[in-house]
UniProtKB/TrEMBL annotation:
One annotated Gene Ontology cellular component of this protein: outer membrane-bounded periplasmic space
Ranges annotated as biased composition (Basic and acidic residues): 420-440
PROSITE patterns listed in its UniProt record: PDZ (PS50106)
Occurrences of domain PDZ (ranges): 90-158
Highest classification ranks of the organism: Bacteria, Pseudomonadati, Pseudomonadota, Betaproteobacteria, Nitrosomonadales
Transmembrane segments: none
UniProt keyword Protease, yes or no: yes
Protein name, per record: Carboxyl-terminal processing protease
Gene (name only): prc
Length: 469
């Protein structure tokens, strides 16, 4: 029996060493202190567990599955955003940055063993069905989510177009779980939407930061200028429920409104590659540098037009980079509610076997040195939205979230906090339960959008003040 265990033990050690080599990372106990010895006691423990599973588990388990789960456990135990991506998940991630993929259209995370909705993506099955930020998905069809990895849950939600899945959801304020059937579709995300709500006033909504978001924004601004026939009186940039995306796209969006060479964001991490200072220059946002600068020839008024940025608890990562940069440079007024607080950088590291790891490698900082991590961006003017679910889970609520290196209260003492819109409680509660759950959300940028109308009122007030000066 002992010989049998030792055989499994050496298999386990060899397997772990193979994993370390395949990840292209040094198997060292303490990189900072340049120690090169392997943590042999920990490796022996790993080998012992590996051997016990192989010999005593109730059913045979393939080595590949054990190693895969060990890698997944290493990464998921670090923070909420580091993860192991198998070959299928890696392909789906690559497809998502292109703006087209199959599924329901939900940006999700994991909290307390359940899948948490960060944000539904506009014009997708989930958005149309009334899925809301901070909903907790507890069942997929008849299968409980508790015990699944996030990757497993995402795989179950993905599937062939026109097939159905039933989500069971917990939502704060509801006395019982909501059961919502959804039909999968090919999700084509239009990241930039633009219109002229009133003559002279431009409205642009960015739903996600994708590969071509900066270029699409530049085209949208040009089109709106053509409609306006001259400089804008005011500009609303809507980043609500935008879960983020590509860093270079966030820099490009910021550069559309900031003077050239202004600092947009900087990062700090342990390696040289993790330390960056990204400015509003083509080298940081345009492929091929200045040769493909999509902001070249942009109308001059874009650097000075009165501007409001809309944010809420579903605005995360790249959205927070943009709003933080515009706030620090006093280029725009940030209006809405406190953002999600995802201020960490995830680097996708492809492996030799077609898989990848998503590893947190740095933290984001705004131009003035504020860390976004677990704090988010506090609006200059706080305006609550009557349609908010009230279940405001943010980065700071997630298990194992990274700490903010400048951990102190960052809420401005002079933040303006007008009253929230009044909610109509006159209807019978049973009527609310039966109808409100699946109502389509309010169209962003419409007259029923309270935060948007407040932004427009603010811009018009600024116009009046400018004329009096």
């Amino acid at each position: 029996m002992r010989a049998r265990f030792e055989k499994f033990g050496w298999i386990g050690i060899g397997a772990l060493l193979g994993v370390l080599l395949s990840l292209n990372i040094p198997a060292i106990a303490d990189k900072d202190n340049n120690k090169t010895q392997l943590p042999l006691d920990d490796l022996r423990a790993f080998a012992e567990v590996f051997g016990k599973i192989k010999s005593d588990y109730v059913e045979p388990v393939e080595d590949k599955k054990l190693i895969s789960e060990a890698i997944n456990g290493m990464l998921s135990g670090l923070d909420p955003h580091s993860a192991y991506l198998d070959a299928d998940a890696f392909k789906e991630l690559q497809a998502g940055t292109q703006g087209e993929f199959g599924g329901l259209g939900i940006e999700v995370g994991m909290e307390d063993g359940f899948v948490k909705v960060v944000s539904p993506i506009e014009d997708t099955p989930a958005y149309k069905a009334g899925i809301k930020p901070n909903d907790l998905i507890i069942k997929l069809d008849e299968t409980p989510v508790k015990g699944m990895t996030l990757n497993d849950a995402v795989k179950r939600m993905r599937g062939k177009p026109d097939t159905q899945i039933v989500l069971t959801i917990l939502r704060k304020g509801e006395s019982k779980p909501l059961v919502i059937p959804l039909t999968r579709a090919v999700v084509k995300v239009q990241s930039v939407k633009a219109k002229m709500p009133e003559p002279g006033y431009a409205y642009v909504r960015i739903t996600q930061f994708q590969e071509h978001t900066g270029e699409d924004l530049a085209k949208a601004i040009k089109s709106l200028h053509d409609q306006s026939g001259g400089p804008f009186k005011g500009f609303v940039l809507d980043l609500r429920n935008n879960p983020g995306g590509l860093l270079n796209a966030a820099v490009g969006v910021s550069a559309a409104f900031l003077p050239k060479n202004d600092l947009v964001v900087y990062t700090e991490g342990r390696t040289a590659d993790a330390k960056m200072r990204l400015t509003a220059t083509p080298e940081n946002y345009a492929k091929g540098g200045a040769r493909e600068d999509y902001l070249k020839g942009e109308a001059a008024d874009m650097k000075s037009v009165p501007m409001v940025v809309l944010v809420n608890g579903g605005s995360a990562s790249a959205s927070e980079i943009v709003s933080g940069a515009l706030q620090d440079h006093k280029r725009a007024i940030i209006l809405g509610t406190q953002t999600f607080g995802k201020g960490s950088v995830q680097t996708i590291l492809p492996m030799n076997n077609g898989t990848a790891i998503k590893l947190t490698t740095a933290r984001y900082f705004t131009p003035n040195g504020r860390s976004i991590q677990a704090k988010g961006i506090v609006p200059d003017i706080v305006v609550e939205d009557a349609s908010d679910s009230g279940f405001n889970i943010r980065e700071a609520d997630l298990t194992r979230h990274l700490a903010n290196p400048k951990d102190a209260d960052t809420t401005p003492a002079d933040a303006i906090k007008p009253a929230a819109p009044e909610k109509d409680d006159s209807k019978d509660k049973s009527d609310k339960d039966s109808k409100a759950d699946h109502q389509a959300p309010i169209e962003p940028g419409s007259k029923n959008d309270f935060q948007f109308t407040q932004a427009m009122n603010l811009l018009k007030g600024l116009q009046i003040l400018q004329k009096k000066q």
